[in-house]
Amino acid sequence: MKKYDFILKGFIDNAFDLKSHLMDFLSIEQDALDGFLENAKMDLANLHPGITLGEARDFYKEIVGDKHLADLAAWHISSKDYIVDTLKLQQRFSKNLVLDFGGGIGTHALANAMSPKVEHVFFVDINQTNRNFVEFRADKLGLRNKLTFCETIKETKISRFDTIVCLDVLEHLSDPAFQLDAFHKIMGPQSFGLFNWYFYKGENNEYPFHIDDKEIIEKFFKTLQSKFIEVFHPILITTRTYKKIK
Length: 246
Hints:
By secondary structure, this protein is of the alpha/beta class. Helices cover 47% and strands 17% of the residues. The chain has one domain (5-244): Rossmann fold.
């Protein structure tokens, strides 16, 4: 087996035992879990209509609860090919101290913790349920000693990260340019940032959680272009790799 292939195989086989972890964490049976996952996207969207940008943080911190776990789990299970490619990208660039910002159900943080190139992963997510679930998963997978769980970057008490992973998060923030600035400050000259974004609510508002304000998006791209330079990778996915501009 090629180096790191065991990580990819573990995700392809069962998403790192995701369904089993969900059943244990939520104390539900297989049939109930399947229904929970099937309705996940609609259930979460129904919580969200009309929310303003200023309320977004409270929404993800306080309101989503278990429904966010279900939505993320359903996406990871149904989109394995895409996510496997993001894991391949991590394997190329992740090293030493890793920040996983807005890590959700933990797929990427857990995969990084499995990598011998990674010393430690700091999993940052404002939602307590997400943090509890990923900590639960880390215990199940024997990875607890390689992960630290925090609500904010400040709580990590780390001034420089070698790798920052921020996937499917920036489009949910009220000021994504501000977050890029924050990343820039905690990256060294040899650090890598793995970022993606999707500033689009959809043709029929199927992504009500995403921002699409033109001024906010323009500010984001101006910040990205002034503070980071892209590092080429051959994987055909929306996630990009960056180094900071001094």
